Amino acid sequence: MARYVSVAKTSDIPAGQKKRVELDDKDILIVNIDGKFYAIDDRCGHMNMSLAVGKLTGKHVTCPFHGATFDVTTGKAVAKHSEQIDQYVQSMNLPIVKTKDVKKYNVRVEGDNVQVEVD
After folding, report:
1. What's the CATH code of the domain at 109?
2. Among candidates 38, 79, 85, which has minimal Cα distance to 62?
3. What is the pLDDT of residues 21-78, one digit of tens each?
4. How far apart (Å, rounded) are the C-alpha atoms in residues 45 and 119?
5. Full DSSP string of the chain
6. pTM, to two decimals
7. What residues make up the domain containing 80?
8. How many domains does the chain have?
């Protein structure tokens, strides 16, 4: 049965910022975009790199390892890898980098608690 669990205070994550939390043995990235909170898996769908150390630009977070970009509102991969990675892969005759979408979690705010739905 799904349940909501408090993972942070709203004041812990100012607008335009992100925070990694651990919940039920999962690493989850919480992002505040203009006062609305979103949650996705913190691990890149390609190499399991933490997205919390990646760059957040608007609603997109970029993997610091290979440059994949994810929409934090949906978990969808919007760019599979950086242009530099693409050039390197082609020059080395390597297989194309395959990046999977990451899981999106439902989020609600109760009082000043940011809560994530888990099952």
Report:
1. 2.102.10.10
2. 79
3. 999 889 999 999 999 999 999 998 777 789 999 999 999 998 887 778 899 999 998 8
4. 20
5. --EEEEEEEGGGS-TT-EEEEEETTEEEEEEEETTEEEEEESB-TTT--BGGGSEEETTEEE-TTT--EEETTT--EEESS-HHHHHHHHHTTPPPP------EE-EEEETTEEEEEE-
6. 0.85
7. 3-118
8. 1
